[in-house]
Amino acid sequence: DDMNVLFIVVDDLRPVLGCYGDKLVKSPNIDQLASQSIVFSNAYAQQAVCAPSRVSFLTGRRPDTTRLYDFYSYWRVHAGNYSTMPQYFKENGYVTLSVGKVFHPGVSSNYSDDYPYSWSTPPFHPSTEKYENDKTCRGKDGKLYANLVCPVDVTEMPGGTLPDIQSTEEAIRLLNVMKANKQKFFLAVGYHKPHIPLRYPQEFLKLYPLDNITLAPDPWVPEKLPSVAYNPWMDIRQRDDVKALNVSFPYGPLPDDFQRQIRQSYYAAISYLDTQVGLLLNALDDVGLSGRTIVVFTADHGWSLGEHGEWAKYSNFDVATRVPLMFYVPGVTTSSVSQGERVFPYRDPFGHILSLVPKGRSKKAVELVSLFSTLAELAGLQVPPTCPQTSFHVARCTEGASIVRYFNASEEKVEEEKNG
Amino acid sequence: CDDTYGCFNEEPVAFSQYPRPADTPQWNSDKPKLKDIRIMGYSMRTIDYRYTVWVRFYPNNFSANFEDVHAGELYMVETDPNQDYNIYNNTSHGFFFKKIL
Fold it and tell me: What ipTM was estimated for this complex?
């Protein structure tokens, strides 16, 4: 039968998750999703920066074909009128919906998240998104700043909430509408955190006492790193708390204790994000659609946490390009779900953390540009053809082959069988 | 097998890239506008290595000149998983260069 698609994309999330082996992080809801999914350990973005990566995986074309390496062009005008993955689902009878940050806002998505081409209804953006970079972080002096490290009292925030909380509420509302209307849907939910500023409910700091936070294993600029390869992390330098440190350009370094504060807040922001994903997946159970919905969980690129003396993305290092990528496919990655069965009960990161393992794991090196063809194949749609060498004139083709072929040959199973 | 993903029994390859305005870090190195891009770093990854060449790039016609290599990186996953020891200049990398082309 027709499968729905819930596509969750997270901004600047590197695979710092329990299901990727991180021992410190509390991510029970994403780990629970992984326990029902195939998890790709070596998935990479085509470019470690928001708009180019998102336009690439949403069109199934590489940056050299979208010709977007910055934020300032719209592929349909600038390169070619390429169909997008949601557009393809829409043309195949799906209601396609966008909540939060799926396309990068602005020029690169025609100031419309590519609506109406990609989406059935105008994309939802949280009303509090506009305060993201305002002075809402309380300093030690009690004043408000636009900091990088920004644990907050949510009740004090403009509108008394945060963008990702609003996105989850809207996504849950849409799930109920789709259920009531018995419509098959492609719902894309784009979460903002842990993109900077690291602004999250301050209670999540309790999960990561600063004493438990170390520096990166290699916090120095490698001796033989070509200078062209180095990313001088300009965006975080503009934040009030980093500016006040007066760090030298381009190599810094940031003071050790502040490096640990950044890492601490990146982890706290992930646990906050995990609760939002948990509420969303719990709602999928509530509307009884967990057995009929493919769930994809990924990110647009990673983020350097001090490795190689770098912060943020903007480089070709693995820490900046590698992303979490997992697919939950009822009846494929797990046995079919019986009516009323709960697959994703909400798990509290402050509670007891179960140690869950992915249902399947593949170590194959795969790419986000393959998402379009992979999801088409999983949903039973015709897979777009491979693009010719030059494809600016071709509306629908893909430069990333489907990776469904790796679902069954996941190394874990092969190893288990080998070990007998 | 010459397609991006090779034969089933051949390790698949993941390609990434990143633009730069100059050979040394400057204020717009992180996010150069298209018109300011002068170099493109093309990376090729498998589960065994990451090979990157930083080559001359021409924004006016979106072309890259792989004969004008500004710098290179090569890291072997097994011996250097954190990519701290660039062995590009210590090894012959003709094989990688041919493969990335």
Answer: 0.95
Tell whether A46 is within 8 A of chain B (Cβ).
Answer: yes
For A173-202, how does the pLDDT look when each residue is reduced to its tens digit (9 = 90+)? 999 999 999 999 999 999 999 999 999 999
Model confidence at A415, pLDDT cuts 50, 70, 90, reads low
User: CB contact, 8 Å: A418 with chain B?
Assistant: no
Residues A15, A27: Cα–Cα separation, whole Å: 11
- Give the Cα separation of A286 and A403 in Å (integer): 30
Of A46, A229, A405, nearest to B16 by CB-CB distance is: A46
Per the rule left: phi > 0, alpha: psi between -120 and 50, beta: everything else, A364 is beta
Q: Rounded CA gap, A58 and A62, in Å?
A: 10
In chain A, residues 360-389 whose CB comes closer than 8 Å to chain B: 363-367, 386
Instruction: Tell me how far apart the terminal alpha carbons of chain A are, to the nearest angstrom.
Output: 35
Distance CA B34, CA A290 (A): 43
Residue range A289-322, pLDDT digits in tens: 999 999 999 999 999 999 999 999 999 999 999 9
- The full length of chain A comes to 420
Catalytic residue among A104, A125, A195, A301: A104
